[in-house]
């Protein structure tokens, strides 16, 4: 305490006045040093040194000047610290396909100076081990007696701290700031702080493929990327504030923990009050007071009730209203304050549905895998995360799952502001190496990490869900049952599942909701329709079912993206794929491949999302993903790239027609008709709004490609509550007036709103298939074919089932799943088709340049032809797009001049005997009409033998796995993280 001393009466008045001024000045200085928190920003230049041989501790590097410099926040790779990339780089992450190391044509990418790793993005430098960071700091005199904290936000991974020659401690967290109390170590004046950071996967092994550490995504970097500072604060302080909203009763329970680091007992008072800050309407509470006592070197936790008035604002995706709670701790000598952001919301479960503030909510989510290709580490600014979340929201989504990692605090702040429901996870994929429930260090670490997550981020309204991690191995059911029970009892502000898993993992019975595969995907091995749903699949589950990692539909690489990689990473994988495409003489087709495969990708996402939306009782989905995944073989599964930017083949406005808070849906039995049939559809609605759709009128139109309305109608006005697959009404349209092969469009709208959706369908004349007398139709390239061609005739070869050169390439209508490298060339191998739609060959077969639903009965499971011996500039009429790991030049239908004649060859089954496939029948008719016209004039000349070879000789290049192990044991150092 500050003490005033008695003054002798004989002191003159002027002297007395001067003395009182000095006393007041000293009192003010004391008050400042006692009451006001101060911060020393440690961002900037640090001394630095790599500790390759792990000798820094024994050689006492904390007592010497380090030899190099680096800038923090940042990573080693960001400032070109570390090692060059070689074939022997010790990556953190499994490699499932060692073929890259052996394929002869890829030898040039294995040469020193030209290393191109195809499995993920390539960092500028790579380093796994210990590194030292050191800085001299001048501690102000008025910090004496204060509590001094060193805050390191998002250090990777283990930190040890020294002040001068004294070690302070060690911390290991992938989810929360590393905070060191330096009060007992720092004195006023110049002090040296040394930090040893190690990013090796050591005793605590969360799994080398966990997105918290792996080179597949952010990379296993070394450094500190967030706020770095020294904080001076009161020695009696507010350690923790946790706010538990009670929306129904308009109040919040506030749990406050106060710590006393002094040798004296503390008696003071706590005051709390909340005020809204981000809405047009404002609201604030009255200030609530409570006395508090804390014994010396002790702590005390009190709970206060904070009532709200009738103007209380709630938080959800539609109206993300937020409050700041100000907590004041005060006594005669101590003053400490803490401001906490929160929202008045309750995220609960009722039966098989989620509720936000009592209102049913459906989760439309994407998986965030820590894709940050410019830095190689996650953003720590609110602005950066707002950009990401606003982009995701523009595609109609309201939810993000963080696959086996937890984002920095800035992500929660941004999600609160934008209005997003988040599922962060324990930073572990305990499968490839570690396992849970067996007593390994990861068991305790996941409890410790999720506890840190709850303390640091638990007040954020967006933190609504929690998973322990991704796809585990070990004694998982017992461990995860206990994990869920622990958290259900500890903190009711969010809901809990075990881990996010695929469909083959065992069910965790105690999970409050299931984030699970198995009930997802498109069964497109039969006639395409939009009538079926997932009701039977989710029926066994009595809790909300959230589809795990739906989609994973691949698109061809966008090579224009390469120029975006101007930061820590280079897209060496893209560079290799681009060069390989050029080596296969198709470099000028890359943009067309991107757009054609992209259109099919969007079609697949549309159909899978709609199938979920029309399933009553489905809880939500987590797609993988809205954006590309840069690792695991390069998984180009997003309509956005790894920068969260559009690729050019679909806009947010187009995507949000089938993915939104309200989506009109149509149950259609098929998409290809003859004009002897009637088109029928049952219209249903998905709605997940803040309120019911009141007195909604839903209308429909059917138009042709010219935009002419052929039929239309309205359904009666009705109020629609939140739900999936809500019946609206039926429609039918007689097709007899459609005289030409046509593509028609059904569009359904919620009148007076932005909500609309559409579906294309095709109608063909009901004609008998006949062979033109001027065309020799054959299923074998026989001697008569040669004779007809030599005499200037026309040949149509239906080579279905006869292909040898290319028979190893398996084509489905669905595109490549994830990628062929990660799954070792598991089919399908083709990711859509590029169609020469402007050719007169398709004059009577309406088509775009990409696979669409009318192509299903032609394309699905058809053989493809490998054109490896054809002229380099040869382009087929219908060109399947190969996996970019092989880049084979393929054909489904091609035309050519042979001798004096002309030929069309199809490996799809096109011919007069094809039954119950109206699209295949119509395409054959269109091709015949083309062959009978003057426009049939193929550009390329081919020899009879080069065509014949397709049905005789195998492909020269056949994919070999070289190993069947998973992950590959032939990859150098692939075993480094396995538990023996």
From TrEMBL:
InterPro entries (UniProt xref): Bact_Beta-galactosidase, Beta-gal/glucu_dom_sf, Galactose-bd-like_sf, GH, Glyco_hydro_2_N, Ig-like_fold, Ig-like_GH2
Glycosyl hydrolases family 2 sugar binding domain residues: 41-229
User: Which residues are in the Glycoside hydrolase family 2 immunoglobulin-like beta-sandwich domain?
Assistant: 236-345
**Example of a GO cellular component annotation carried by this entry:** beta-galactosidase complex
| Transferase listed as a keyword | no
Entry keyword set:
Glycosidase, Hydrolase
**GO biological process, any:** lactose catabolic process
Q: What EC number(s) are associated with this protein in UniProt?
A: 3.2.1.23
Q: Which reaction does it catalyse?
A: Hydrolysis of terminal non-reducing beta-D-galactose residues in beta-D-galactosides
Matches recorded under Pfam families: Glyco_hydro_2, Glyco_hydro_2_N
GO terms for MF: beta-galactosidase activity
State the similarity comment. Answer: Belongs to the glycosyl hydrolase 2 family.
Q: What is this protein called?
A: beta-galactosidase
Q: Which organism is it from?
A: Flavobacterium fluvii
């Amino acid at each position: 305490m500050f003490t005033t001393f008695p003054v002798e009466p004989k002191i003159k008045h002027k002297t007395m006045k001067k003395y009182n001024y000095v006393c007041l000045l000293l009192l003010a200085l004391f008050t400042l040093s006692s009451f006001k928190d101060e911060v020393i920003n440690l961002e900037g230049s640090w001394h630095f040194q790599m500790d390759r041989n792990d000798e820094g501790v024994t050689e006492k590097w904390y007592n010497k000047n380090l030899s190099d410099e680096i800038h923090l926040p940042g990573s080693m790779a960001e400032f070109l610290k570390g090692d060059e990339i070689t074939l022997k780089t010790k990556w953190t992450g499994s490699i499932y396909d060692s073929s890259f190391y052996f394929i002869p044509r890829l030898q040039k990418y294995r040469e020193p100076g030209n290393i191109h790793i195809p499995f993920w993005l390539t960092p500028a430098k790579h380093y796994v081990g210990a590194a030292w960071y050191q800085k001299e700091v001048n501690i102000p005199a008025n910090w004496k007696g204060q509590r001094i904290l060193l805050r390191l936000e998002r250090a990777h991974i283990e930190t040890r701290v020294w002040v001068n020659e004294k070690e302070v401690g060690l911390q290991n967290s992938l989810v929360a700031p590393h905070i060191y109390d330096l009060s007992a170590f720092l004195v006023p004046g110049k002090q040296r702080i040394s930090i040893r950071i190690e990013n090796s996967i050591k005793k605590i092994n969360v799994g080398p493929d966990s997105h918290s550490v792996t080179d597949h995504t952010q990379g296993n970097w070394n450094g500190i990327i967030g706020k770095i500072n020294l904080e001076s604060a009161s020695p009696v302080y507010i350690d923790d504030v946790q706010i538990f909203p009670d929306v129904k009763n308009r109040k919040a329970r506030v749990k406050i923990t106060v710590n006393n680091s002094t040798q004296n007992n503390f008696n003071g008072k706590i005051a709390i009050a909340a005020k809204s800050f981000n809405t047009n309407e404002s609201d604030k509470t009255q200030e609530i007071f409570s006395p508090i006592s804390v014994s010396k070197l002790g702590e005390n936790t009190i709970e206060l009730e904070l009532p709200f008035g009738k103007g209380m604002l709630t938080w959800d995706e539609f109206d993300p209203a937020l409050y700041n709670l100000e907590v004041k701790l005060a006594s005669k000598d101590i003053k400490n304050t803490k401001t906490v952001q929160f929202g008045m919301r309750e995220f609960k479960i009722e039966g098989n549905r989620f509720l936000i503030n009592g209102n049913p909510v459906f989760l439309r989510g994407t998986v965030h895998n820590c894709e940050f290709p410019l830095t190689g580490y996650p953003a720590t600014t609110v602005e950066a995360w707002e950009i990401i979340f606003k982009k995701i929201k523009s595609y109609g989504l309201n939810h993000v799952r963080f696959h086996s990692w937890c984002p920095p605090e800035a992500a929660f702040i941004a999600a609160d502001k934008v209005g997003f429901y988040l599922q962060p996870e324990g930073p572990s994929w305990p499968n490839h190496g570690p396992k849970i429930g067996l007593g390994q260090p990861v068991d305790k670490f996941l409890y410790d990490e999720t506890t840190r997550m709850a303390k640091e981020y638990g007040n954020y309204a967006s933190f609504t869900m929690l998973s322990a991690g991704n796809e585990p191995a070990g004694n998982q059911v017992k461990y995860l049952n206990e994990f869920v029970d622990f958290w259900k009892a500890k903190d009711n502000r969010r809901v809990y599942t075990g881990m996010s898993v695929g469909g083959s993992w065992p069910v965790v019975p105690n999970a409050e909701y299931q984030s699970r595969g198995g009930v997802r995907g498109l069964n497109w091995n039969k006639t395409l329709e939009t009538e079926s749903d997932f009701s039977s699949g989710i029926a066994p589950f009595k809790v909300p079912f959230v589809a795990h990692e739906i989609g994973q539909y691949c698109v061809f690489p966008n090579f224009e993206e390469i120029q975006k990689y101007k930061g820590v990473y280079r897209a060496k994988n893209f560079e290799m794929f681009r060069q390989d495409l050029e080596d296969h003489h198709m470099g000028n087709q890359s943009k067309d491949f991107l757009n054609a495969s992209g259109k099919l990708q969007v079609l697949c996402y549309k159909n899978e999302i709609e199938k979920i939306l029309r399933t009553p009782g489905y809880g939500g989905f987590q797609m993988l993903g809205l954006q590309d995944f840069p690792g695991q073989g390069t998984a180009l599964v997003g309509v956005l790239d790894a920068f969260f930017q559009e690729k050019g083949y679909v806009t947010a406005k187009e995507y949000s027609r089938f993915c939104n808070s309200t989506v009109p849906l149509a149950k259609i039995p098929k998409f290809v008709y003859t004009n002897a049939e009637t088109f029928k559809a049952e219209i249903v609605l998905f709605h997940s709004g803040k309120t019911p759709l009141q007195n909604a009128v839903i209308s429909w139109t059917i138009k042709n490609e010219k935009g002419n309305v052929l039929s239309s109608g309205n359904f009666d006005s009705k109020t629609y509550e939140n739900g999936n697959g809500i019946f609206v009404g039926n429609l039918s349209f007689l097709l007899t007036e459609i005289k030409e092969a046509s593509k028609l469009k059904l569009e359904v709208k919620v009148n007076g709103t932005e909500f609309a959706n559409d579906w294309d369908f095709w109608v063909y004349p009901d004609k008998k298939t006949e062979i033109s007398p001027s065309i020799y139709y054959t299923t074998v390239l026989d001697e008569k074919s040669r004779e007809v061609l030599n005499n200037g005739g026309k040949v149509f070869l239906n080579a279905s089932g006869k292909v040898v050169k290319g028979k190893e390439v398996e084509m489905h209508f669905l595109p490549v799943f994830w990628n062929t490298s990660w799954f070792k060339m598991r089919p399908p191998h083709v990711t859509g088709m590029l169609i020469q739609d402007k050719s007169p060959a398709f004059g009577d077969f309406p088509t775009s340049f990409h696979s669409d639903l009318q192509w299903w009965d032609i394309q699905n499971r058809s053989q493809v032809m490998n054109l490896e011996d054809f002229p380099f500039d040869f382009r087929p009429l219908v060109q399947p797009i190969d996996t970019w790991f092989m880049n084979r030049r393929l054909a489904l239908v091609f035309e050519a001049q042979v001798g004096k004649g002309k030929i069309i060859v199809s490996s799809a089954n096109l011919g007069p005997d094809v039954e119950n496939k109206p699209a295949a029948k119509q395409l054959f008719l269109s091709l015949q009409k083309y062959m009978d016209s003057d426009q049939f004039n193929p550009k390329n000349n081919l020899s009879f033998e080069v065509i014949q070879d397709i049905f005789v000789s195998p492909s020269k290049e056949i994919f070999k796995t070289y190993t069947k192990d998973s992950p590959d044991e032939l990859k150098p150092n692939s075993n480094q993280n396995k538990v023996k």
